[in-house]
Structure prediction request, 448 residues.
Amino acid sequence: MTQSELARLLGISPSYVNQLEHNGRPLTLPVLLRLTEHFGVDTEFFAAQDIARLVADVREVFADGTVGGAISPGQVDELTTQLPDVARTLVSLHRRYREAVENIATLVSEQGLDRTTAQQPHEEIRDWFYLRRNHVAELDEPAERLATELRLIPGEVRAGLAAGLRDRHGVEVVTAPIGSDQHRFDAAARVLHLSPALRPGQAAFRLASELALLEAGETIDRLVDDGTFSGDTARRLARIGLANYFAGALVLPYRVFLGAAERYRYDITRLSDHFGVGFETICHRLSTLQRRGTRGVPFSFIRVDRAGNISKRQSATGFHFSRVGGSCPLWIVYEAFGSPGRIVTQVAELPDGKKYFWLARTVTRTVGGHGDPGKTFAIGLGCELRHARRLVYSDGLALGADAAVTPIGMGCKVCERPSCPQRAFPAIGKTLRVDEHTSSLLPYPPLT
Prediction:
């Protein structure tokens, strides 16, 4: 569409359109409303926070001491606002550069690990979902339609999924021990084996993931082909990730789930009881509710272990998960390990002044019998503070100017807070004050 055509549609002059495109004029409310009416674009699409993640990514690039460059926060903002595609390309190149450096270091080490094939593909998949704000409309909507066709009832979906596999694809479901596997599909025999150790919600999810490959295999293949993944391992992981996404959307259909979430004010325990699935599954699904026109609270979702390793991270917000130097030890997700099974909350403020409301709780999975090691994770779910009043967990908490705010950072190596006593690494690119005749409460005091 030309500027003149757009101007006529919006009832403004072509010169005004030109100024809008070059950030020479502000986007007024009447023009914004006409844009949303004619093009079906959410007003939040034009909000400044839409580039918050990109700003954080670019800042991390220039915080890398090996890059050898320096750029002010103002220049970062200007780059991401005026040239967002250039900024994204810069971030992508830096990630490939860092991965190459890590791969070389691994290859010359005595460990003998091939990071390229063992770890990098998982990061590729996480980045793919991250760039899509953890919402895949091409799978979410078909999954919702299929849930209607199968007449799935919340809390009783396992029987409906098994019937769907049998009636639509001739697949029989058998529950029997299968070693350490949770499920195994024999395509030749058309038999899906389920482990008896699976809880009802877990079994339903495994049925749904195989049904996803049978029902939406072509769409999944197309998404994988368009994803430009690095190799066969990444492509296989992408197929699994997309099948799991479809499964989540099938077990927890969008409009039904969003309606219940709003009705219960995002009470995860009540949602878990209502739909018969676990705490982590509910949290993960809540982070995907970003369908245009019917959006839920935009959440960030994270799963972390006691050592600080992030095994899952998805975001529909501007919150940025750092890859440099780990995550912030002041973050509430680590506090959850001190209160197993209890939901803890936090109002957190990032160095740029943005405030988020976070809740976290541990989940534990037993594997095998007595004496066998289990798995314990902390699940974190966060949203911008302006959405917090929609959550039942904010009741009774001060959320305004008198809120009890915890200052956190994206990770010690890129954190801009010089006076943090919990810092685990010195900030990249910053000069330290090193004086043999002076001691400090700060582990890495900056040069003032």
In short: The chain is about 45% helix and 15% strand. Residues 110-119 have pLDDT under 50 and may be disordered.
